């Protein structure tokens, strides 16, 4: 019996072994033999391919812009007449990138390299604007773009009218006749200044102004294909260092008088309270009215931020005018100055 089982096992395992051994011989199976492909014809007239990573179009940089004004980070919040006393970064680092602009960066601006003919610039602007809009056309544009759900809207913050914002305006003008601009923060203290720089730098015209909402019209003869070349700033430059706004002794006062003025202002109730990124359109008028009866005023700027407090003090000094004597704990103390005799 054992001999029979052993024979059966031997007889059972023998055929698979012989079958596998036969399958391993590829020479006996013609369908699986490799097929030789014909060689490709060689073309000796082909030019070698250029590396796309190193190839650059000719005359792409430096960019040359014919815009007739100096390029700055902000046009409305920087006073060109005030020279800085120092820089937080070397003027060698241009925010337009190395070798990307034909203008030299001075630390605060990139001055124009050619003389500006104001008469020719005004003539070109009037040609693009065309004939003035009728009342019906203005009402139609206002009704189309003045609402808060308008898709053609730009938000103007504490940077004011920035350089890259001019490019954003022209991008909206590709498909829309007007762009809605919502102004917030410190720049709203001087809306006239904002309107001037928006029209001057973009070439458009403001057709609607309601508190802090503006509509900027592109003009009848505006052509998006012939829009001006606006090189973009790749990063925000560090602001330079300006002279101190608050002096130990205010102009026209001694140190003891200035100290007494500061204490009187800190102990008085605030004439107005400001919120962060609010609308400060009526602040200058309220301060002027309060100065008719009071000599020192306190402005509560809680939650506004110390940097915005300094900006507000500078704006009030130039617009009211007045003399800032202290900003402490987000409180601004301003003095109306000596009355002329």
Descriptors for this entry?
4-stranded mixed β-sheet; 11% strand; alpha/beta; 8 helices; 341 residues
Q: How far is the N terminus from the C terminus?
A: 140 Å
Shape: globular
Structural class, by secondary structure, is alpha/beta
Rg, nearest Å:
36 Å
- The mean pLDDT is 84
What is the string of SSEs from the N terminus onward? HHHEHEHEEHEHEHEE
Number of strands: 8
Helix content: 25-40%
How are the strands of the largest sheet arranged?
Answer: 1-2-4-3
**Count of separate DSSP helical elements:** 8
Major sheet details: 4 strands, mixed
**What percentage of amino acids are in beta strands?**
5-15%
| Low-pLDDT residue intervals, each spanning 5 or more residues | 1-29, 50-58
Tell me what the structure shows.
The protein has 341 residues and is α/β, with parallel strands linked by helices. It is built from 8 helices and 8 strands. The strands form 2 sheets. It has a 4-stranded mixed β-sheet with strand order 1-2-4-3, with helices on both faces. Strand 5 (272-273), helix 7 (283-290) and strand 6 (296-300) form a beta-alpha-beta unit. The radius of gyration is 36 Å and the shape is globular. The model is unreliable at 1-29 and 50-58 (pLDDT under 50).
Write a brief structural summary.
This protein has 341 residues and is α/β, with parallel strands linked by helices. The protein has 8 helices and 8 strands. Strands 1-2-4-3 form a 4-stranded mixed beta sheet, with helices on both faces. The chain has a 4-stranded mixed beta sheet with strand order 5-6-8-7, sandwiched between helices.
């Amino acid at each position: 019996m054992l001999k029979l089982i052993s024979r059966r096992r031997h007889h059972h395992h023998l055929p698979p072994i012989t079958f596998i051994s036969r399958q391993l011989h590829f020479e006996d199976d013609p369908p699986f033999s490799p097929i030789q492909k014909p060689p490709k014809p060689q073309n000796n007239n082909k030019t070698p391919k250029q590396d796309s990573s190193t190839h650059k179009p000719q005359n792409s940089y430096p960019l040359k812009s014919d815009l007739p004004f100096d390029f700055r980070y902000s046009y409305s919040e920087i006073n060109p007449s005030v020279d800085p006393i120092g820089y937080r970064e070397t003027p060698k680092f241009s925010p337009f990138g190395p070798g990307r602009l034909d203008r030299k960066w001075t630390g605060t601006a990139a001055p124009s390299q050619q003389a500006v003919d104001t008469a020719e610039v005004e003539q070109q602007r009037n040609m693009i604007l065309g004939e003035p809009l009728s009342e019906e056309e203005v009402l139609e544009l206002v009704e189309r773009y003045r609402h808060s759900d308008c898709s053609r809207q730009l938000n103007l913050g504490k940077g004011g009218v920035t350089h890259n914002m001019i490019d954003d305006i022209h991008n909206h003008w590709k498909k829309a006749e007007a762009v809605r601009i919502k102004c917030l923060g410190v720049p709203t203290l001087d809306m006239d200044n904002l309107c001037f720089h928006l029209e001057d730098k973009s070439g458009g015209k403001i057709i609607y102004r309601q508190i802090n909402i503006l509509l900027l019209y592109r003009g009848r003869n505006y052509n998006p294909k012939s829009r001006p070349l606006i090189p973009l700033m790749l990063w925000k430059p560090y602001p330079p260092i300006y002279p101190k706004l608050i002096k130990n002794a205010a102009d026209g006062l001694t140190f003891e008088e200035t100290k007494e003025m500061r204490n009187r202002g800190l102990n008085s109730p605030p004439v107005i309270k400001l919120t962060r990124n609010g609308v400060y359109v009526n602040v200058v008028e309220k301060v002027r009215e309060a100065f008719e009866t009071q000599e020192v005023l306190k402005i509560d700027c809680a939650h506004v931020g110390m940097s915005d407090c300094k900006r507000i003090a500078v704006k009030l000094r130039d617009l009211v005018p007045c003399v800032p004597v202290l900003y402490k704990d987000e409180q601004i103390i301003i003095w109306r100055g000596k009355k002329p005799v």
